[in-house]
Amino acid sequence: MGTILNPYISFRDQARPALEFYQSVFGGELDLRPFSDFEFAKTENRDDDNKIMHGHLRAPNGLNLMAADTPASMEWKGGTAISVTLSGDDKDEITEYWKKLSDGATVGEKLAQAPWGDWFGMLTDKFGVDWMVNIAGPATTGQ
Question: Helices marked H in the chain — which ranges?
C-alpha cells in the first residue's frame, strides 16, 4: 500500500449518523468503534460510552473517510477552516454523490460548469462539513 491521505472529521455527538449518511452517499464498509470498546478510552461520563472513538468508511472505489466524536470532557473545536474535496472525471458518478450530499445541505455554489471548463459546486452538508466538488471538463489541446 502506498501513502494515503484521509480526511478525519471531528464531531461532538454526530460521528455515527454522519458516517452512516456518508455510507449512504458513497457505499462501502463502515467500521464504528465506540469508546466503550476500549478499556483505556472509557470515560467518566457514561453518556460518552456509545459515542464514536474511531469510525472509518472504506468505499469500494478507494474513497476513505474517518471521523470521531469528542467526549464531553474535552474541548471540541468544531467548525474548521477545511473542506473535503471530491474530484474526478466521471460526471455521472460524482453528480450522484453531489445529489446525495445535498440532502439537507446548504448549497453555497450550485454544481454547474465553471469558467475554466470543469463542473464545480460547494455545499455545507447537514452535519456542518464543507464539501467542494469538481468534475473535470473536457481536456483542451494546445496549438
Answer: 15-26, 91-101
Assigned C-alpha cell, 128: 456542518
Classify strands 8-11 and 64-69 as parallel, antiparallel or unpaired: parallel
Q: What is the pLDDT of residue 73?
A: 77
Q: Which fold has domain 83-135?
A: 2,3-Dihydroxybiphenyl 1,2-Dioxygenase; domain 1 (3.10.180)
- The fold of 8-69 is 2,3-Dihydroxybiphenyl 1,2-Dioxygenase; domain 1 (3.10.180)
pLDDT digits (tens, 9 = 90+) for 6-53: 888 989 889 999 999 999 999 999 999 998 887 655 556 677 888 998
Q: How confident is the model at residue 118 (pLDDT cuts 50, 70, 90)?
A: very high
Are 48 and 71 contacting, i.e. CB atoms less than 8 angstroms apart?
yes
**Contact status, residue 128 vs residue 138, Cβ threshold 8 Å:** no
